[in-house]
Amino acid sequence: MTAAPGDRLDGRIRRHAWQSLVLQGAAVGFLFAMNAVLGRLLGPEQYGRFSFGLTVAGLAALAFSLGLPNGVMRFVAEYAATGRWALLRGVVIRTGQWVAALALVGAAMLLAARAVVPGLGAGAREGLAYAAVMLPLVALGLWRSRAARGLERLTVSMLPEEVLVPLAVIAIALAWPLASAAGAVVAWAAATAVALAGGTLWLVAVLPAGIRGVVPEFDGRLWLRVSMPMILGGLMQLAANRGDVVLLGLLRDMSETGVYVGAARIALLGTFALRVVDTYTAPMIAGAFHAGRADEVRSIFRRGVAYSAAGAVPLCLIALLWPEPLLRLFGEAFVPGATVLRILALGQLVNAVTGPVGFTLLMTGHERLFAGMMTSASAAGLVAGLLVIPVWGGEGAAVVAASTAAAVNVAMLVAVRRKVLRRGPAEEPR
Fold this sequence. Notes:
- The protein is mainly α.
- The chain has helices at about 5-65, 70-80, 85-115, 120-150, 155-175, 180-205, 220-250, 255-265, 270-290, 295-320, 325, 340-355, 355-365, 365-420.
- Helix 2 packs parallel to helix 4 (about 120-150).
């Protein structure tokens, strides 16, 4: 007896949800443990420099990759769902080449900025040097992960960089206790380079058999036209989420930045369920939307919201009620961040209960709307941060970050309901 379409969808959602739950659980757990270990070993000052460098590298990776990582996920999912193997092979090859070249340009520009921008403190200059080292690895890892996710290969997407790298850094840190941010950067870079090489070979091995021997086709103009709005949206999203760390590092001191990052890492645990949902819903929504299955898109999104909200409430309540014991995991010097943690936890709660709104807009042809919303939110957060952080420091940064995140996620939820859930597939942007 043939299974009904709804039953098949339920089975796919359950399979991907459980796989994502296991992988995200390992990724979030090891990442949190890595940051706690580094916080204890390095102290707030050196941990702040490491975190500042990694945050800048993440922002620069999105800026210089021109939105291609999210673009490749969207197009890989679309081409795999419609059997366009030549284009599938072409988009993987060309976007990988572009991301590698652009990341090297970005690293050189960070080093130049370190040398020529006036008024930078010693910590910020050191952090920019770390960011230049990390940038190519972050950008290529993001591209590789997104390509694998477009194929709905969650293990290939997440295991190398998101699970094995934090685990390797923990092992290195415990075997050779690290005393400086520079040592932490070397450990992270070595682990990430090995994971990237192995993960890329793994990605090649799991590409669909239909592309073997096919001459690749390239539609670079389309790929850039669709991806470049994603760069603005993705960059502004990361700026809205992590711009607080950069502004603190530039406007205050690295010790306060380190305490703030410790609190932010704990607050992010509240979005664990959302990360699980994002991981499997993005490629499923892209494939269903571009294949014209509007009811399936609605079903995937609504279940994602329910799962994300259910997982967020207990975690955020723990952070609100018992922030001090959580911060002691990083060390006694991080306990003053209790108020920061409470504020950020509230913002992440709103983020989680709105569900996978960002990826839903990106995967359904509304990348320009997403970019506009995130640009507005990031600009508002930047202006507010420049006014608030010099006076109120970490607590002011937390208020700005939490309120900005809450407002933009609510706005995107309204947009998803109007633009996606109440309509069929939009016309393909060509």
